[in-house]
Amino acid sequence: MDSDRPVPVREMRASDADRERVAELLHDAVTDGRLTMEEHSERIEAVYRARTLGELTAFTRDLLPAEQQPFKVDAQNLLALFGSQRRDGRWVVPARLPVAALFGTVELDLRQAILQRRHITLDVSALCGRLRLIVPDGVEVRVTGRTVLSSARQGRRQDLPEEGPVVEVTGTLLFGSVKVVRPKRPWRASLRRGRRS
Questions:
Q1: Alpha-carbon distance 43 to 54, whole Å?
Q2: What is the C-alpha separation between 83 and 38, in angstroms, rounded?
Q3: Euclidean distance between CA atoms 183 and 154, whole angstroms
Q4: CA angle, corner 114, sides to 123 and 97, nearest 5?
Q5: Is residue 35 classed exposed, middle or buried when 0-12, 13-18 and 19+ CB atoms within 10 A define those classes?
Q6: How buried is residue 96: exposed, middle or buried, by Cβ count under 10 Å (0-12/13-18/19+)?
Q7: Of the listed ranges 14-23, 42-51, 150-159, the one predicted with least confidence
Q8: What is the pLDDT at residue 27?
Q9: pLDDT above 70 as % of the chain
Q10: Which phi and psi angles does 191 have, rounded to 5°?
Q11: Ranges for the DUF1707 domain (predicted)?
Q12: Band of the pLDDT at 194, cuts 50, 70, 90?
């Protein structure tokens, strides 16, 4: 097996927490009558046997609209054209993700995301558009793309682990911006509460 080839998004291994998330949704579905007890029992057994995220998506596909599914395992490009696109929750970030923001905003929340590889590349095309990245602690963001009359704000400086995940922003930004949002440090939050009291 080629170790340099990323595992296909749908074939990534599911965690126990992923299976429990689907089981909770199935419990809700049998409670409100969308599933019979027999259907619920069959699906629950299959959920706990499931090994991949792709397998888990099959159990809720007919119960919830696309935007409410517990996992997003499609590798579709993101396009914001005179509007906004947001990807958040439990989703798989492919090794290379094309992003286009034309007079619009793309927001990617990586706090619950699964990275297909340790090094992720966002190939951005932005014309008067914005990319907003919300990243958890320990994730390094590198903006290496070509910027013309554009801005890149990295948020507060961090002590990052040498072998930690990297999100690289490549491509071209013309009259655009990249903003990185990082979680607030706990001591800062408590300091603000202290000032109010």
A1: 15
A2: 44
A3: 12
A4: 15
A5: buried
A6: middle
A7: 150-159
A8: 97
A9: 88
A10: -65, -40
A11: 12-63
A12: low
- Which residues are 167's β-sheet partners? 120, 141
In this prediction, residues 5-23 reach a mean pLDDT of 90
**Closest by CA position to 122, among listed 112, 139, 138:** 139
Can you read off the two tokens belonging to residue 170? 């490549």
AA identity, residue 111: R
Pick the closest to residue 130 from 159, 156, 99 (CA basis): 99
Backbone Cα Rg of the chain = 20
List, as own/partner pairs, every contact residues 12-18 make where C-beta atoms lie below 8 angstroms and the sequence separation is at least 24, other chains included: 12/52, 12/53, 12/54, 12/73, 12/92, 12/114, 12/116, 13/51, 13/52, 13/53, 14/50, 14/51, 14/52, 14/53, 14/55, 14/56, 18/53, 18/56, 18/70, 18/71, 18/90
Buried b (16+ CB within 10 A) or exposed e, 133-157: bbbeeebbbebebebeebebeeeee
38-63 average pLDDT score: 96
pLDDT band at 187 (very low <50, low <70, confident <90, very high): low
Non-local (6+) Cβ contacts of 146 within 8 A are 171, 172, 173
Q: Identify any residues that bridge with 93 across adjacent strands, giving them in sequence order.
A: 115
Mean pLDDT of the region 27-37 = 96
* HSE-CB for 152 with a 13 A CA cutoff: 17
pTM of the shown model: 0.80
The encoded tokens of residue 11 equal: 């074939």
